[in-house]
Design a protein that fits this description.
The chain is an alpha+beta fold. It is built from 4 helices and 10 strands, in the order βββαββββαβαβαβ. The strands form 3 sheets. Strands 1-4-5-7 form a 4-stranded antiparallel beta sheet. It has a 4-stranded mixed beta sheet with strand order 6-8-10-9. A hairpin with a 2-residue loop joins β4 and β5. It starts with a strand and ends with a strand. The relative contact order is 0.17.
């Protein structure tokens, strides 16, 4: 990870098109399913990817988050964005903050980028005196394994997030 640098993003970092070339592609072979209070693995094979329109939507979400007082951290390898994560400035019950984005590009996975991005979000949430970090996480078993390794555990979903992503596994990290 020596060639990867991490920055606390400013609006200058989030110019339109800054995610061009970002490769979200992820091959899914199994997902975690939450049913009747139990989480189990279910085989399911597909490819999850983002097109240019989705990348533009994500760029806009990050700019909005910064404008509203949130936090965005970006990982670069050279000039290319290889990962990013964000912290929503909105407070939720039980002194909880939400991490709506934490993504690592396909070529940069396995290099510790996700762990560093997550640690930066946790540090910022603690700096803001949050007691819990909430994550509505993609059900891919590798994604779930990553969050479990970071200490996250299943939690009761925040209704608005559950409505948006009912198939996600809703997690928390106690800070």
């Amino acid at each position: 990870m020596t060639d990867i640098r991490f920055v606390d993003a400013t609006m200058d970092d989030l110019q339109p098109g800054f995610l061009s070339g970002y490769r979200r592609r992820q091959e899914i072979h199994a997902i975690a399913v939450h049913q009747d209070g139990t989480i189990f693995e279910q085989p399911l094979t597909y490819v999850h990817d983002w097109d240019a329109s989705k990348l533009t939507t994500i760029e806009n979400e990050m700019r909005t988050m910064l404008n509203q007082g949130g936090y965005v951290t970006v990982a670069y390898e050279g000039d290319a964005v290889v990962g990013f994560a964000s912290l929503d400035p909105t407070w939720y019950p039980q002194h909880t903050m939400n991490m709506p984005l934490c993504h690592v590009s396909e070529p940069a996975r396995g290099k510790g980028v996700g762990q560093t991005l997550f640690a930066r979000i946790v540090a910022e949430a603690r700096r803001r005196h949050a007691d819990r970090l909430y994550i509505s996480a993609h059900p891919d078993v590798n994604t779930q394994r990553f969050y479990r390794q970071q200490g996250c555990r299943p939690t009761t979903p925040i209704p608005s997030f559950y409505e948006q992503e009912p198939n996600d596994i809703h997690l928390e990290l106690k800070l």
